[in-house]
Amino acid sequence: MKDPKKTNEKLDQLESHSTSNDQEMLTTNQGLKINNNQDSLKAGDRGATLLEDFILREKITHFDHERIPERVVHARGSGAHGVFKLTKSLAEYTKAKFLTEVGKETPVFVRFSTVAGNRGSTDLARDVRGFAVKFYTEEGNYDLVANNIPVFFIQDAIKFPDLVHAVKPEPHNEIPQAQSAHDTFWDFISLMPESMHMIMWLMSDRAIPRSFSRMEGFGVHSFKFINEEGKVHFVKFHFKPKLGVHSVAWDEAQRISGVDPDFHKRDLWESIENGMFPEWDFGVQLIPEEDEDKFDFDLLDPTKIVPEEEVPVQLVGTLTLNKNPENFFAETEQIAFHPGHIVPGIDFSNDPLLQGRLFSYTDTQLIRLGGPNFHEIPINRSIKTVHNNQRDGYMRQQIAKGKVSYEPNSIGGGCPFQAMMSEGGFTSHQERVSGTKVRQRSESFVDHYSQAKLFYNSQSEPEKMHLQNALIFELSKVTMPEIRERMVGQLAFIDRALAFKVAENLGVEVKELEFPNQSLPADSNHVDLQSEEREAHTKISGALSMQNTIKDTIKGRKIGFIMANGADAGAINDLKTKLEAENAVVEIIGPSMAPVKTNDGSSLIPKHSLTSTASVCFDALFIAAGEDSTKELLTPLHKHRVLNFINEAYKHCKAIYFGEGTEPLYTNSNVGLKQHEDPAIVTWDDAAGADKFIKAIAEHRVWHLELERNAQN
After folding, report:
1. Among the listed residues 558, 524, 514, 327, the one whose alpha carbon sits nearest the alpha carbon of residue 445
2. Residue 291: per-residue pLDDT
3. 676 annotated active-site
4. What integer pLDDT is reported at residue 389 of this predicted model?
5. Are 596 and 626 in contact (CB under 8 A)?
6. What is the C-alpha to C-alpha distance for residues 418 and 191, in angstroms, rounded to an integer?
7. Helix (H) or strand (E) holding 499
8. pLDDT for res 617
């Protein structure tokens, strides 16, 4: 029997080591009270972040070392090898060699990832996607550590640990996993007006892509190009998928997470194995240094985009992924990215989020990969031989010969020696830096709503509906009414109709909001919801809506052929041939995994059964021709499953082709109840059925009919 006294003593010991932050002031780990936890220390409010900022370094260092060995963020990843080919020289703007010689090919490794979840979470979480590219250039490795969303939640790196702590599972019960729909995330966001633009992207369909090959990539920050003459241009990086930008519906994402949580990983792997290599156009937005201040936002603000209508994206190259890793851990898991891995001709801006990342990434790799020699892991090695005087450390592999490990030296003949600029030696861009040492935000960073409004206004009506529903879903998971109310108040500064729609479904009122953000000028703490200036702000950008994306290809689209014994072999083979000629993928779905015997006596082996997959895993369905096939599918054993399959695909606005003899399936399903002309539904009596089916698949979805279909269901 346990001794109650000893148990209490143990509890007392534990209690003496526990802490509560209630009613306490912020301090460093040394007990120093913190006066400003919103801004890093900079040389002037738009200047570079200073190395002496011990508060930033302590906070980021502790954050970087929170997880062993899994990444703190971007833990769940998928990767592939490939090649970058330059199609237009940028020699006028940069001396980076891989960007100056047309036709030059540079090997790459790309890692895609979700941000919030752990390695075992689903691919289909509503989340930001990492899009990190390691270029193995002749001048050394260059890492473009990008995302599929062009802006970020915060303006200063000192807030990154707070953001991630807020979105991660709540620390008292480790719930929920890979979700932002909980109290701590929305509490943080509702108090951070600078996050509003990013929230519009995160709640949009961009946060649940159809595949990695159908999502964009963005460098997020403003970087600098420097040419041979030393002239500087600001540059924003873009990857535009050749297959267009497409998403799945949130309802689908939840179903896919149960049926196939590796949906994106599997799609990437199988696409490459099947020779349908994912491709992106690589583009840049270029702004001369002297035009830095010509915009109505600050180029250094990572919560802002440069609208493509103001600065068009110039397409200059192609990124192709053509080889899967041979070992997931050795390559995809151990690859180490860092935005500070640059080459001559590329340099940093004073973006305060970027400045903090330059410190954080190396620090993270030290703990995650066991020490300073992570660059020697094969996937991280430069194709250019490394020569320096760095020695030893955990897992050192390079054997450095000789007795010299310092510079300058005479014993080793002065080697390795410094390279001159003319020999490719890297030199940082020389710019005048002056200003008072301050811990504050530039006033040019204060506008938090204009671009959030621009994004929302630019969405099509179906996209707006999805965004509204996402906010309602997420905020309905918030248990504290005051957080829901505060968040609705933030939405009112973006779009009043949006705010009232969300508020109505949350059971809260839309109230005027006072900002708790210290970076705002004192006289801006109260904003009138009736402001004519805000109501008149109706600019749109066509590039921000997926409605305007590429819709002329079915390459890589997965088409499910539902069939049973007696299916028409000729019709199946004819359509399969046409679809595969367009580089689509055809997969057979049978009542079970037993071979399907067609009307010509041949057998087809299903890849799936009606019980092992779901319509959400396919882009379109063909209900195979054949009266006998239809009769078997309508038997009591299979009827419910096959009709559910069809109805679900119809609900999600997908293309469905009903072959000859399938009229009973058509009339028994929700498709037979359709009230409006539907270009995505093709029937047996259409002579041009195959061509119409292919065109409907290329269109992706008929989202404008979604409301009607949901009403039917």
Report:
1. 524
2. 97
3. no
4. 83
5. no
6. 49
7. helix 496-506
8. 97
For residue 507, count other CB atoms closer than 10 A to its CB: 10
In the structure encoding, which two tokens stand for residue 397, read together? 């592999």
Helix 54-64 and helix 160-167: axis angle, to 10°? 30
Per the document, the length of the chain is 713
Give, in order, the Cα–Cα distances in Å from 254 to each of 186, 208, 223, 248. Answer: 21, 10, 37, 10
281 within 8 A of 635, measured Cβ to Cβ: no
* Dihedral angle over CA of 680, 686, 687, 689, nearest 10: 20
pLDDT at 538: 67
CA distances from 495 to 193, 205, 405, 534, 537 (A): 14, 18, 62, 9, 10
What's the token pair of residue 45? 């409010």
- Cβ atoms of residues 546 and 205 within 8 Å: yes
Please tell me the distance from the alpha carbon of residue 350 to that of residue 423, in angstroms, as a whole number.
27
CA 580 from centroid of its chain's CA atoms = 29
Question: How far apart (Å, rounded) are the C-alpha atoms in residues 417 and 413?
Answer: 9
Chain centroid, CA 218 distance in Å: 9
- Per 3-state DSSP, the chain is made up of helix, strand and coil in percentages (nearest 5) of 35, 15, 50
Q: Which amino acid, 588?
A: I
User: Dihedral angle at the C-alpha atoms of 533, 538, 544, 547, nearest 10 degrees?
Assistant: 160
Question: Three-state DSSP class for 353?
Answer: helix
Q: Which of 503, 641, 669 has its CA nearest to residue 564? A: 641
pLDDT tens-digit series, residues 517-574? 444 333 333 444 444 444 445 689 999 999 999 999 999 999 999 999 999 999 999 9
Q: Cβ(112)–Cβ(129) under 8 Å?
A: yes
What's the rounded Cα separation, in Å, for the pair 245 and 265?
17
Distance (Å, whole) CA 428 – CA 348: 9
Model confidence, pTM? 0.90
Sign of CA dihedral 549, 555, 557, 563: positive
429: annotated active-site residue: no
- Cα–Cα distance, 689 to 520 (Å, whole number): 59
Whole-number Å distance between alpha carbons of 296 and 450? 10
Determine the straight-line distance between the first and last CA of the chain, rounded to whole angstroms. Answer: 60
CA distances from 341 to 142, 144, 362 (A): 5, 8, 10
Give the count of alpha carbons within 13 A of 699, CB side only: 18
- Catalytic residue (one of 141, 147, 148, 599): 147
The radius of gyration of the chain from alpha carbons, rounded to an integer in Å, stands at 28
Amino acid at 366: L
Walk me through the domains of the chain, giving residue ranges and CATH numbers.
Answer: 42-174+201-380 (2.40.180.10), 449-547 (1.20.1370.20), 551-712 (3.40.50.880)
**pLDDT under 50: residue ranges of the chain:** 1-2, 4-7, 10-11, 13-14, 516-536
Cα 652 from Cα 249, distance rounded (Å): 7
Model pLDDT, residue 151: 98
